[in-house]
Every structure is written in structure tokens, then in C-alpha cells.
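Now for one protein, fold included:
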Amino acid sequence: MPVLTTRPDFLSRHNISDDELSTLVNTNRDGLSEKMWGFAGIAAGLFGPCLESLYGAYIESPPIPLGKVHLGELLVFAVTAGIAGTIRYVGGKRENRSITLAEEIRARPKS
């Protein structure tokens, strides 16, 4: 089977300063940070009520049984904290990749 290979007419190269490269690395364009802080805020807001319901159910005497509302709070807390942690992990990986790329560009031979 024949293979057809294409190529662009030309490759654009850009000269940028080290300061501009640092700015590009530190620029957040994907919005993951805002989403992470939103989910972290929800989890932080539910932290107190969740502790209160767990304290009442397992430490206080006589125990106060967990109701549907308490279980719902615990579920929403766990899900939002998990989502915030996952977004932070993914965002950190992306940040490390851009930092590595910037270091590779800086390490290129000078001409």
C-alpha cells in the first residue's frame, strides 16, 4: 500500500526572551485552578457539618444516628474533595510538563 506524506510549506520559528518564556510557563489558560478552588471551597464548607455529624454518631453518648441529610453531606464532601484532589494532581502534571519544556528550551545551544 503506498504511503503519502505531507509537510508544511514552511516552519515558523520565534525568538523570545527568557522573561517571556517564564511568563508563558506561569500563565494559566485552562481554568483548572479556578475549578479546583471551587471544589475545595465546597469541601471546606462541608467539613464542619461533617465533623459534627460524625462526632454525634460515633463519639457522643448517647449516639445520634446519621440521617439522610448527614449521609448526603458526607457524600458531597467526599466527592468534592476527591475532585479537587484529582484536578490538583492533573494541574500539577501539566505545570511540571511546561517547566520541563522551558528548561529544555533554555538548555539549547546558544548561537
Notes: The chain has three helices and no strands. The chain has a mean pLDDT of 89.
